[in-house]
Write a structure and sequence with these properties.
The structure is a single chain. This protein has 2 domains: 150 residues, dinb family like domain (Four Helix Bundle (Hemerythrin (Met), subunit A), Up-down Bundle); 88 residues, SCP2 sterol-binding domain (Nonspecific Lipid-transfer Protein, Chain A). By secondary structure, the chain is an alpha+beta fold. It is globular, with a radius of gyration of 19 Å.
Length: 285
């Protein structure tokens, strides 16, 4: 097996508890600035409007507080025995809540979010970052996760939905490195799970180069029958995938159709290996 480059290092935990409050502040300021027309604008998130995304974020807060802080059990009959069952269950809950929340005014949605956001941040802050997560990060292929990863996943969802709102209403994007790089640093951790059924010789490597202010470089390497993710660049990768930071977050969150994704990604070397990246998802789907 080819030796691993000394420049490669395992990815470290991304500690984002203290970034939740600034991100939440940006959300509340955005919502307070919207016109009545803005609230009904369509977003990139399926058939949901800006109002629906705000309601969904409120549901995430309430569900988190009820389940993790208050130990409220799942509804009776919520048997979750597979990933497909989990997706179906979550989608059903999301749909039910968003439909009911269309009765709420934008002002009330914003007032409630202004309350629940700090409560969730306080809950996260009260738990050791290395403790077991309340919910595993399933899109990373994990059945058990550390608390920091659960918090990070929560941050990525909050950032993503806020950015979808900003896109919809033409508000300034939160794509500076301080906002977007942590999202990408977490999203790329979906790659080993994305490649889990791809078989290559030991030592095969793929370099992912995300350009732009929020970007970085990672290497996915075949070792001991698995794919392992590293920060840094392998000396002679079998494939190199290059895309912008804007294209990357959209790709990992289902924001690009396959044809559009392929047009924004450059693949050098092993084309089949590199094209697998186009199927990466860091959202529940």
């Amino acid at each position: 097996m080819p030796a691993r480059s000394a420049s490669l290092r395992p990815p470290e935990p991304v500690l984002l508890v203290d970034r939740l409050a600034p991100l939440h502040g940006q959300l509340i300021a955005l919502l307070r600035s919207l016109s009545p027309t803005d609230w009904d604008r369509p977003t990139a998130c399926a058939l949901w409007s800006v109002r629906d995304l705000a309601a969904h974020l409120l549901d995430d807060d309430l569900r988190r507080l009820s389940s993790q802080r208050d130990r409220q059990p799942l509804p009776a009959g919520a048997a979750i025995e597979s990933h497909a069952a989990l997706v179906a269950f979550v989608n059903r809950m999301n749909g039910e809540w968003v439909a009911a929340a269309r009765r709420l005014s934008p002002r009330l949605l914003t007032d409630l979010l202004e309350l629940t956001g700090p409560w969730v941040a306080d809950l996260f802050r009260s738990i050791d970052s290395a403790a077991p997560a309340h919910w595993a990060v399933s899109w990373a292929g994990e059945e058990r996760s550390a608390h920091w990863f659960d918090v990070g996943r929560d941050y990525t969802e909050r950032w993503l939905h806020q950015q979808q709102m900003r896109d919809a209403v033409g508000a300034p994007a939160l794509t500076g490195r301080e906002w977007l790089h942590p999202v990408l640093d977490l999203f790329v951790r979906a790659l080993p799970n994305t490649f889990r059924e791809i078989v290559r010789e030991e030592g095969t490597s793929l370099r992912l180069a995300i350009t732009g202010p929020a970007g970085g470089e990672w290497t996915l390497r075949r070792e001991a029958g698995d794919w392992r993710l590293y920060v840094g660049t392998a000396s002679e990768p079998d494939a190199t995938v290059t895309l912008s930071d804007d294209a990357a977050w959209r790709l990992f969150s289902k924001g690009l159709a396959p044809e559009a994704a392929r047009a924004r990604v450059r693949i050098d070397g092993d084309q089949a290996l590199g094209a697998t990246v186009l199927g990466a998802l860091a959202v529940l789907a």
